[in-house]
Amino acid sequence: MELYGATLSWTSSISLPIHIAQPPSIWGIKRFRLFCLNNIKNVSDETQKDNRMVVSITGATGFIGKRLVQRLHADNHRICVLTRSKSKAQLVFPAKEFPGILIAEEPEWKDCIQGSNAVVNLAGMPISTRWSFEIKQEIKDSRISVTSKVVDIINNTQDDVRPSVLVSATAVGYYGTSETNVFDEQSPSGNDYLAEVCREWEARALKVNKDVRLALIRIGVVLGKDGGALAKMIPIFMMFAGGPLGSGKQWFSWIHLDDIVNLIYEALSNPSYKGVINGTSPNPVRLAELCEQLGKIMGRPSWLPVPDFALKAVLGEGATVVLEGQKVLPARATELGFSFKYPFVKDALKAILSS
């Protein structure tokens, strides 16, 4: 499960040709940078005419990041994957399927970011594991260190080549957990560990240059077939052992993978998308309802609950994220007129399981 928000992510949560050969090793990063800078400076350039972007992305090999890269690539935008493991990224984005994507390890991030007009920051260690002191520190550091690095590079870039927008992920864990409260972007932060992580995570992003448009997307539990929550739940239901975790009364603030990718995509190009935006469906559900709908669609029972003690035995302190939950509404996205493809969990599950 990727527990992205309070959810920080349930694992942490429950394609058009660009004709550039895949670079060998360091491949003229400078060539790429010069190409990007020319695109940004020269408004008559074909890329500018077509409104195509040059986007650098951290966390591109993750559940959300992979789908975002696919979407941007399909729309002929130029992409730089900022990674700490080029070999892993090359497996996820093979050159034959993703021609023209540049894969850059940390020493090359600066050139990529300075050659981009947009940056997406999705990096962070999954939180669905037993939390020790060391793991908790790593969960926090993995988010804060990458965000700090990205912001520092942006801030130290000359005005004429600085990216114009930063879309930085955070999580609905910011609000803490509750069975009764309803949270939107104006709600205060919680007082638990994940809320603390999210506050510090966002604080680093907020240090970005004031001339850079910043969109902070607080992401809920992301639903999709090839990762996140459903990838963990579907096999259990297939074995007729599915059911709610804990009481089932806890709120489940979810979003379909396509919708979170569309929200990030819109935030890249629409100047109205700035500040905090909740990346959740307008119709959160109780966890019992999610499991009931999943069972019906799969033709499997959903009555066998996973007791609190069993989940705590696996996740320890981290189990509180799943056992308590929170009801988060996307007030800002609704105000902006964002159109959710899957506003209801029943339709989202049907689409995922039929794909």
From TrEMBL:
Please report the name of this protein according to its UniProt entry.
Answer: Epimerase family protein SDR39U1 homolog, chloroplastic
Q: Where does the record place the NAD-dependent epimerase/dehydratase domain? A: 56-272
Lineage of this protein's species? Eukaryota, Viridiplantae, Streptophyta, Embryophyta, Tracheophyta
NCBIfam families annotated for this entry? Answer: yfcH
InterPro entries to which the protein is assigned, alphabetical: DUF1731, Epimerase_deHydtase, NAD(P)-bd_dom_sf, SDR39U1
Q: Which residues form the DUF1731 domain?
A: 306-352
